[in-house]
Fold this protein.
Amino acid sequence: MGESDGSTNGGITGTGAAGDSRRRNSNKRQRLEPPPPSLGPRLVLSCAASAVSETCTFPIDMVKTRLQLQQAMTGGEQPTRGALSMAAHIVRGEGLKGLYHGLGAAVLRHACYTSLRIVSYESLRDWVAGNGDAGLGARMFCGAAAGLIGQAVASPADLIKVRMQADGRIIAQGGTPRYRGLWHAIVTVANEPGGIRGMWRGVGPNLTRAALVNLGELTTYDLTKRWVMSLRKGRDDIGTHALSAVASGLFATLFSCPADVVKSRVMAAGPGEQATGAIRCLVTTVRHEGFFALYKGFFPCWARLGPWQLIFWTTYERLRSITGIQGF
């Protein structure tokens, strides 16, 4: 009997020790796992990173937009220019500051657009994945949905940006621009026929472009980063971020350039000019200028998206690291 009691007590003691060990290991794992990233800091950090990237690359965006608009601006009466010729033309006619006309609206747009799309994608991806890993189709869906969410909010600022960029043609001809600054542009556009609702003019092609560019950009960056990390033994550093950003810029441009051309032409029309819808603009462009007109400004667009992505993602990932938030 005594022998049996000793055996039982030993079993109970062993079981208790094993349970304590499992609890200690569980607590250790919980301490090692990074906490889920909070919403507010990610919104602020993505907003700050986008402002830096937008300021650095805005002149390229100006050239790209003017290339896409030049046929509509001149009515086909003047020869079309290339990227370098267009940049020189802007500087000659408007000075260096002409390359930054509309920067305030662009930064305002990204403060809404980029912060919302980045946080939305990450939240949707993690929700879809649950305890597993989201597949390609799920990531593509999350990218497109995140683009729609961000652009639905930021579309008025995008309209103001394109209008202010297109104003350069009036300045170059010695005329008075329609808008004296960002606030004047907002008030003027809001007082046009259609009122506040009119600030969502071109929202159709805008949303289409946003869905396509984020489908290409966010999905590619996400998957490329994980692939590069697997090749580099899990190194989540600036080299990984840079390679992933360049790849995402290329695919974002391939997906979005046609919608970007249509969006720019629809949104650039002033209240006194003939307005066209997205489908009509698309058909008219292809009919009169050919299919590849939809890829006008492709290389400036890629040249802009590549550096934009590079600056944004390296800045954003670094800010996350500094503030103790796990990588994207």
In short: Residues 39-74 form the longest helix (36 residues).
